[in-house]
Model the fold of this input.
Amino acid sequence: MKILIPDTIDLTLTGDVEAVVYDVRSEIPVEHRDAEVLVVWHNSGAQLEQAARDLPRLRLVQALASGADVVLRSGFAETVRICSGRSLHDGPVAEHALTLILAAVRRLDVLRDAQGDHRWDDGFNVAQTASATRADYTLAGARVTIWGFGSIATTLAPVLRTLGADVQGIARSAGDRAGFPVHADADVAAVLADTDVLVSLIPATPDTADLFDARVFDALRPGAAFVNVGRGATVDEAALIAALESGRLRAAAIDVAKAEPLPSDDPLWEAPNLLITPHVAGNRPVGASALIDDNVARLAAGDDLVNQVRP
Done:
């Protein structure tokens, strides 16, 4: 079985396969268009659309990103199975999410600005110790709501709990997941009203476009923080800026945006109390070779695949 491996990641496959490395910036060479498996990592949408047209024997597209939304939009035949890299990024994304949560709560952006000004910010210490505001500067006792309670959330939530946070989730259906209460989407208004830090791990789908809009930000407890390590398409960015400007949101930290790379003139850069990182939460798939080996073996045996999102 011929497998096309992107040149954007080092993989070591152990199965009985013919692994061919391809350039994600170019069309698939004619001599390799008989491949049955295409592994995707940092491919452009245009390159994937071309691959969908050029690979008639393709049986599986294995994305290494936690979501396969770009692959799903690329026009691969309905007979081609598509799998995501869900779970490969649990550790790295949870780690970055924790970093952004702490940065937003502890207001590291304010301290970094003071450092840039060569200024010892005595007022910061006053604010974090005053009885009226000290609770804003710690996760101890804070209600943290994770919207999109999947495998990344089950990695992140116990760490937040260790730091003293009261963690809950929002998902399509209610229940207990990994020892944490998860509320259904239908109950979101009541959940948000009692939320100090809202964390998004939501994927980009037609149903989640601009999910985080003015209604969501207005429903949060006044002075809450918002952190997005999911997808930029899920946020109404004008509403986010307005919530920061009005003070409805005390702070926000985002790793994703609708336009990536974010243009230098984008208004997000000038939004107050906003920390931006350039989509770096993941980008380190852990266990990718083992996942590919497993799914290739399953494909050959006619078994169900891991992380299959289509068909």
